[in-house]
Amino acid sequence: MSEPTPYDHDRAAYSREGLARLVLADHATEVADSAAGLVGTRNDVDTGLAGRVSQARQLIELAERTLNSAVVYEVERGSSWAQIAAYLGVSAEEARERYTPAVHAWNSAFEEPYRLDETGRKRIPQLPTAAYDPNWACTQLDRWAFLRHVGIDDRQAVSAGLVVLDTADESVPTENGS
Question: 6: closest CA among 135, 159, 158?
Fold first, then answer.
């Protein structure tokens, strides 16, 4: 499907590494928010028996998705399978076998950023939301980080560190001068 998507222009301003980092940040916020849900005890009486196990299992699933995103990000920034494997405690071949499907899905999504639903009328993005609509993601993630004090009084704790491209594919400094 070669028709343009609504966010192609916005997405083109970011490197693939930057988009992968946004996806990783987005997934990390889901893990953090899910983990935070296990902290408070006041509503335990309202939770069905074994309900906290369900929440903890969901946390593991979100963490696994975040790990996949971290591997994609590391591949995008040039890490080798041996470097990635060292942090996973497995061989490079094991890391490659386990995470190649995530990397292939990421690459395929750039070739075909969306598919049509069964009616043929609605676009279904193949890229994660943070990569498909990076400007929205930057706004949301910067707000999330600011409200949780990730960086003292930093209103751009996420977006300021991303590699942004100009039309000539050269790095452009962000507002903070980096």
Answer: 135
pLDDT one-digit tens code per residue, 31-65: 999 999 899 888 888 888 888 999 999 999 999 99
Position 146 scores a pLDDT of 92
Cα separation values, 84 from 64, 92, 160, Å = 15, 7, 25
What pTM, to 2 d.p., does this model score?
0.85
Task: Quickly tell me which residue has 């929440």 as its tokens.
Answer: 55
d(CA 81, CA 100): 10
Residue 121: DSSP 8-state? S
3-state secondary structure 26-84: HHHHHHHHHHHCCCCCCCHHHCCCCHHHHHHHHHHHHHHHHHHHHHHHHHHCCCCHHHH
Do 143 and 133 form a contact (C-beta atoms < 8 A)?
no
Q: Which residues, in sequence order, are bridge partners of residue 116?
A: 123
Q: Of 133, 143, 147, 130, which Cα lies nearest the Cα of 24?
A: 130
Read off φ and ψ for residue 141, nearest 5 degrees.
-70, -40
Question: For the purposes of burial, counting CB atoms within 10 Å of the CB of 156, is it exposed (0-12), middle (13-18) or buried (19 or more)?
Answer: middle
> What Cα–Cα distance (Å) separates residue 78 from each residue in 104, 119, 144?
15, 40, 28
Encoded tokens for 162: 């991303």
